[in-house]
Amino acid sequence: MLAVKVPKREAEKIRRRLIELGVLARGYVPKREGEFVLFPVTEPVEGFELVETDFERLERRPHSYREVVEVPDEVRPLLPSSFDIIGDIAIIELPEELMPYGEAIGGAILRVHRHIKAVFAKGSKVSGEYRVRELIHLAGESRTETIHRENGIRLKLDVAKVYFSPRLATERMRVFKKTQPGEVVFDMFAGVGPYAVLLAKKAKLVFACDINPWAIRYLEENIGLNKVNNVVPILGDVRKVAGKLEADRVIMNLPKFADRFLKEAMLSVRDGGVVHYYGFGPEENLFSEHEAKIKAVSKELGFKVEFLEERKVRPYAPRQFNIAIDFRVLK
Ligand SMILES: C[S@@+](CC[C@H](N)C(=O)[O-])C[C@H]1O[C@@H](n2cnc3c(N)ncnc32)[C@H](O)[C@@H]1O
């Protein structure tokens, strides 16, 4: 193959020049020969010493498990293009037809993504009071505890025992940016603390409640892991706590049932304080039903609400979205 032979000390500059000229042959490893480097070229280049030689092919690492997994052709189009990564654990949603190939799919994920040590398939929808799902082990270690990094904090958690979604990282950062130094925050459904621990970096005090004992156990560990000393973990039903404290900012991250806890949220926020409400809504009518419920509860309590911001957080199901509504309560 045709190549240009250049002095080693000028190799990088000349490589860039060959790219600019559009003559560098792609997919080969440049060759070293003593004080010289040889670059493969697609045509003769004026002003350079030209030689004829062989080059090794560049081995491209696959980007996706789909490039290496062995499954029958008829089910290949069903392979999901993405999956969740929590710490060093991958969780993938497989259609029924792909479940017989779960081990092969898990193995392919481990081969392509070296930092992943265990792969599970979703075995059910998120359900129950604790909002957890069943998991089916596909490949790698059969371990469900991990440490996840997001927004500059570390969160230890067990994916089988507590709720956690890495897809909410951007939303949590949005709420962090709204939080003002000196605020008191009430995280009504705190889980292992992705909001509570993050907001504790800015707020004066964070009350963090959850009914799942495992979530509170990990929250306590995460408080230590991130060296924050202003989070108060509360194990129990938030209904027993609400109204007994007064916060500048209340977080209601229980989208499936948040509407049932609006009274508790409004009784726990100070006059002029802000509530971050989450819900699910169909594409054609994302916010209005939730707004109506918020208005009805505030009326019942003799308060007023001012809607500040409404946004889609992430897709949830076909044509369904996880939505966020920020509103101020005036008492
Ligand atoms: C959707 S998860 C959110 C967890 C966390 N905020 C996060 O972003 O990962 C909702 C959490 O609310 C908790 N929960 C459900 N009902 C509750 C209640 N009545 N009182 C307190 N916590 C509750 C569940 O155990 C679960 O951890």
Automatic annotation (TrEMBL):
Question: So which domain of life are we looking at?
Answer: Archaea
Q: Name one GO cellular component term.
A: cytoplasm
This enzyme catalyses: guanosine(37) in tRNA + S-adenosyl-L-methionine = N(1)-methylguanosine(37) in tRNA + S-adenosyl-L-homocysteine + H(+)
Q: Which UniProt keywords apply?
A: Cytoplasm, Methyltransferase, S-adenosyl-L-methionine, Transferase, tRNA processing
Q: What class of enzyme is it?
A: transferase
Which positions fall inside the SAM-dependent methyltransferase TRM5/TYW2-type domain?
Answer: 83-331
MF GO annotations: tRNA (guanine(37)-N1)-methyltransferase activity
Among the GO biological process terms of this entry, one is: tRNA N1-guanine methylation
Q: Which PROSITE patterns match?
A: SAM_MT_TRM5_TYW2
Q: Which CDD domains does the entry link to?
A: AdoMet_MTases (cd02440)
Where is it located? Cytoplasm
This protein's major location comes to cytoplasm
Purpose: Specifically methylates the N1 position of guanosine-37 in various tRNAs.
Q: Which PANTHER family match?
A: TRNA (GUANINE(37)-N1)-METHYLTRANSFERASE, TRNA METHYLTRANSFERASE
This enzyme's EC code(s): 2.1.1.228
Under what name is this protein listed? tRNA (guanine(37)-N(1))-methyltransferase Trm5b
